[in-house]
Specification:
With about 160 residues, the protein is an alpha+beta fold. It has a single domain (about 1-150), classed as Peptide methionine sulphoxide reductase MsrA (Peptide Methionine Sulfoxide Reductase, Chain A, 2-Layer Sandwich). Helix content is about 30%, strand content about 25%. It is built from 5 helices and 8 strands; from the N terminus they run E-H-E-H-E-H-E-E-E-H-E-E-H. The protein has helices spanning about 10-20, 40-45, 65-75, 105-120, 145-150, and strands at about 1-10, 25-30, 55-60, 85, 90, 95-100, 130, 135-140. The protein has a 6-stranded mixed sheet with strand order 7-6-1-3-2-8, with helices on one face. A two-stranded antiparallel sheet has the order 4-5. Helix 4 links the parallel strand 6 (about 95-100) and strand 7. Helix 3 (about 65-75) packs across helix 4 (about 105-120). The N and C termini lie far apart (about 30 Å).
Length: about 160
């Protein structure tokens, strides 16, 4: 089993998108890329004082789905050209970011980004950050599998 950590806006919708994929074994929403210990949702959303992004940690079976395929999903579920926002959600906590957990993931992510830049899909510059994974803090329980708990209401995708 392997893990990936992606930030692509509101973590509720990102998690929901990945939970549907064959080969994804589990997901956890949380926070990564910041500076304080044990951040809370309120702290993360409070004027970017912590530096964290809302992220999803995905555990997957590489025999069933590849990291490259997960990256394709990542690129297609959000707009990687908007800096610190997705739809109506604005702030650094909603930034587009790939936190790599190995040099191999870094290499594949950078190659994927380069291919996307070269294929002309986006007119604007892609602003997705590709950074080494930092500490992952699991979000509060009420955020986990939010869509499943609330019958798919509260769409994060606009």
């Amino acid at each position: 089993m392997e893990k990936v950590i992606f930030g692509a806006g509101c973590f509720w919708g990102v998690e929901a998108a990945f939970r549907k994929i064959k080969g994804v074994l589990s997901t956890r929403v949380g926070y990564s890329g910041g500076t304080t210990k044990n951040p809370t949702y309120e702290e993360v959303c409070d004027n970017d004082k912590t530096g964290y992004a809302e992220v999803v940690e995905i555990t997957f079976n590489p025999q069933e789905i590849s990291y490259e395929q997960l990256l394709n999903v990542f690129w297609n579920i959000h707009d990687p050209t908007t800096l610190n926002r997705q739809g109506p959600d604005v702030g650094r906590q909603y930034r587009s970011v790939i936190f790599y957990l190995s040099e191999e993931q870094k290499k594949i992510a950078l190659n994927s980004l380069k291919q996307l830049e070269n294929n002309g899909k986006y007119k604007r510059k892609i602003v997705t950050a590709i950074e080494p994974a930092q500490e992952f803090y699991e979000a509060e329980d009420y955020h986990q599998q939010y869509y499943e708990k609330h019958g798919g209401r509260h769409s994060c995708f606009y």
